[in-house]
């Protein structure tokens, strides 16, 4: 029994070391993705979109993404993974009215995909509440896009929201 515990402890230690490396790699990739988001896709919100931004920002707090910093380490990893997956899904929708070029969107989605693959080694199962909270938030993002007919203003709000997410913002998450 003692040998089994040592093996389990060693496995956890290796996983912990690996997840520390994941955190560093994720931070690096996030910085590249955020730079692309700002430089290639535009950093400014057009004046005609301000009312839409204010309206979306002042929605009920029940639709806000839960604070990722309040999650336990395993939940934070799951939340980061789900946020990245939802961003990829959102950017795969109708973006004909979007002023971003297709190549930049493809590169951005590829970078997010690499982050998702990197996170897989640190994921823990059984965290559906965390995933559901993230999905609820992104349902509002996708509803906004649909309700606004995928307008440039709606996409600018999406861009603004993406930049504010800790999973993409290079925040110091504990995996």
Automatic annotation (TrEMBL):
Subcellular location: Secreted
SUPFAM superfamilies, sorted: 4-helical cytokines
UniProt keyword annotations, A-Z: Antiviral defense, Cytokine, Disulfide bond, Secreted, Signal
An annotated GO cellular component: extracellular space
Listed GO biological process terms: adaptive immune response; B cell activation involved in immune response; defense response to virus; humoral immune response; natural killer cell activation involved in immune response; response to exogenous dsRNA; T cell activation involved in immune response; type I interferon-mediated signaling pathway
SMART domains: IFabd
Entry annotated with the keyword Signal: yes
Top-rank lineage group of the source organism: Eukaryota
Any GO molecular function: cytokine activity
Sequence similarity: Belongs to the alpha/beta interferon family.
Descriptive protein name: Uncharacterized protein
Lineage, highest ranks first: Eukaryota, Metazoa, Chordata, Craniata, Vertebrata
């Amino acid at each position: 029994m003692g040998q089994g515990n040592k093996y389990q402890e060693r496995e956890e230690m290796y996983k912990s070391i690996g997840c520390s490396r994941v955190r560093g790699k994720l931070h690096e990739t996030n910085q590249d993705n955020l730079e692309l988001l700002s430089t290639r896709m535009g950093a400014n919100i057009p004046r005609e979109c301000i009312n839409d931004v204010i309206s979306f920002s002042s929605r009920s707090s029940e639709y806000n993404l839960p604070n990722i910093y309040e999650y336990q380490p395993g939940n934070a990893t799951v939340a980061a993974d789900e946020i990245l997956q939802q961003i990829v899904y959102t950017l795969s929708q109708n973006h004909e009215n979007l002023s971003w070029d297709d190549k930049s969107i493809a590169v951005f989605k590829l970078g997010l995909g690499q982050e998702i693959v990197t996170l897989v080694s640190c994921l823990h199962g059984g965290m559906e509440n965390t995933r559901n909270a993230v999905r609820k938030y992104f349902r509002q993002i996708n509803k906004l896009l649909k309700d606004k007919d995928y307008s440039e203003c709606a996409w600018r709000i999406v861009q603004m929201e993406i930049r504010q997410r800790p999973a993409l913002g290079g925040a110091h998450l504990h995996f």
